[in-house]
Specification:
single chain; 199 residues; alpha+beta; Jelly Rolls; six-stranded antiparallel beta sheet; three-stranded antiparallel beta sheet
């Protein structure tokens, strides 16, 4: 796990305020209201307003939905170069942050335009609670290190390194990082159903 530790020290760019400003600029450029984007992305207007003001940072899935509603991509919103490559050496992964408390992502794909799967390595600090989500698609998570309390519908799973969860994301789900160390998670998710392309 030495490579992720080195990347963690690099502190990937991407503050909530910068992301929120980028979302607001894109929304206004398209002449859309907060309510319209919220409805298109299956999010609440209040949450989207907090994201735009830098008071909340969205999950990767929610950001994908927002990008789709704005007919753009995560890379464009985060000013991360959109690079497709079937092969990615471990020291060449793109990283970006969606928060200020140590939460960041290492891109493992997609390897080609139109890919349905989006693999990532997610780093989350101790105590982090993900937003509660319910959307079309599926998700696979392999816990590399740390410990998670994973809520899936009425079920609660305590995940340790090596444990896997794979489920239909139309079931409400969220997770909590337990203990005093960060969780490092390998995720493979599908594109949101509303992803109509990018410009």
């Amino acid at each position: 796990m030495s490579a992720p530790t080195e990347r963690a020290k690099a502190k990937p760019k991407g503050k909530p305020t910068e992301l929120g400003q980028a979302i607001r600029r894109r929304r206004k450029a398209m002449g859309l209201t907060l309510d319209q984007v919220a409805k298109s992305s299956d999010l609440t207007t209040g949450f989207l307003s907090q994201v735009e003001r830098g008071l909340s940072s969205p999950s990767l899935t929610s950001l994908m939905a927002i990008a789709a509603a704005l007919h753009t991509s995560i890379e464009q919103l985060l000013s991360v170069p959109k690079v497709f490559s079937e092969y990615v050496p471990k020291d060449k992964r793109q990283t970006y942050s969606l928060g200020t408390r140590g939460r960041f992502y290492e891109k493992l794909g997609p390897g080609f335009s139109g890919a349905l799967f989006h693999p990532q390595i997610v780093h989350r600090p101790a105590g982090h609670v993900s937003e509660k989500m319910c959307h079309d698609g599926e998700a696979f998570c392999y816990l590399l290190s740390g410990q998670l309390e994973y809520h899936l519908g009425d079920q609660i799973f305590i995940m340790s390194p090596g444990d896997v969860i794979h489920h239909d994301t139309s079931t409400r789900h969220y997770s909590v990082v337990l203990g005093e160390t960060e969780a490092v998670e390998l995720w493979v998710t599908t594109s949101p159903i509303k992803d109509t392309g990018s410009s």
